[in-house]
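[recover] target loaded
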């Protein structure tokens, strides 16, 4: 009887010992799972509920987004050359290189738009800095233009079209500029001034992306930071003349709310003009790539 009880006690101790070892093993697995570095992989993911959507951007860098739409570009300037450079390289393969006029200074100060791209931002001094394009264009009737910018100054041309290559143009329209309230204005001329204007001011010292489009089918549209901020479907044509696209300076005389200084003061990245109307999705993609 005594031996039978002793055997049962030994069996119970073995069961308890095995259970304890199992608990220890499970704990070791959990600790290992928590401490071993996980691997990463690139993928697209999207999470949606009834009111909000979170999704990956289709392009990781501004260079990727610009490259996707380069087929219809007249030029694409990254504006990321080193200080002292004279050439704004056209990245779309069409060799329409621009020329830095006045002082060319580059800065890598953060925060910076398109931070995952190489190079710095073009710093425009507000007195002599701008980019001229090499070739004249005959009456662009369908087009899109865009640029990343940062400024604390209310006024100055961001990008536009003028009859002269480097001096103040006698004819000028298809222009995006900041008015004296810091609002974005997109203007074209067709016997009278035609403008669409943002309600918000953008001279807050932060980076912003602006794009504008015009065509007979869509009228005038103005986008800021990836969204449509102003439009007029009745404004379908601009002035008929041959001219040059300009970045950072040309006269804006006669336009509503124009400042006395037509030069842009601040920083820029990624200026481009296209011979097509960028869709709202394309504009949104270009903006998302720079975040």
């Amino acid at each position: 009887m005594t031996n039978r009880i002793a055997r049962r006690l030994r069996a119970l101790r073995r069961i308890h010992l095995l259970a304890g070892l199992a608990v220890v093993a499970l704990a070791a697995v959990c600790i290992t799972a928590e401490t071993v570095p996980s691997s990463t992989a690139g993928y697209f993911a999207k999470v949606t509920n009834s009111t909000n959507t979170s999704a990956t951007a289709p392009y990781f860098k501004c260079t990727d987004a610009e490259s996707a739409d380069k087929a219809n570009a007249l030029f694409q300037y990254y504006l990321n050359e080193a200080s002292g450079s004279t050439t704004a390289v056209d990245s779309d393969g069409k060799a329409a290189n621009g020329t830095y006029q006045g002082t060319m200074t580059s800065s890598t100060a953060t925060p910076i738009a398109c931070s995952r791209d190489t190079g710095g931002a073009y710093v425009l001094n507000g007195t002599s800095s701008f980019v001229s394009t090499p070739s004249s264009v005959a009456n662009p009737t369908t087009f899109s233009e865009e640029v990343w910018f940062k400024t604390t100054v209310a006024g100055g041309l961001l990008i536009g079209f003028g009859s002269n290559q480097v001096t103040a143009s006698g004819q000028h329209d298809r222009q995006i500029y900041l008015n004296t309230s810091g609002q974005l204005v997109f203007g074209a001329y067709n016997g009278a001034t035609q403008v669409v204007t943002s309600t918000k001011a953008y001279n807050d010292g932060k980076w912003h992306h602006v794009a504008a489009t015009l065509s007979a089918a869509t009228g005038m549209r103005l986008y800021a930071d990836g969204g449509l901020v102003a439009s007029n479907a009745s404004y379908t044509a601009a002035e008929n003349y041959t001219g040059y696209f300009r970045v950072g300076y040309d006269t804006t005389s006669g336009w509503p709310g124009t400042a006395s200084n037509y030069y842009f003061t601040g920083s820029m990245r990624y200026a481009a003009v296209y011979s097509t109307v960028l869709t709202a999705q394309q504009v949104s993609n270009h903006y998302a790539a720079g975040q």
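[recover] notes: The CA atoms of residues 153 and 203 lie 6 Å apart.
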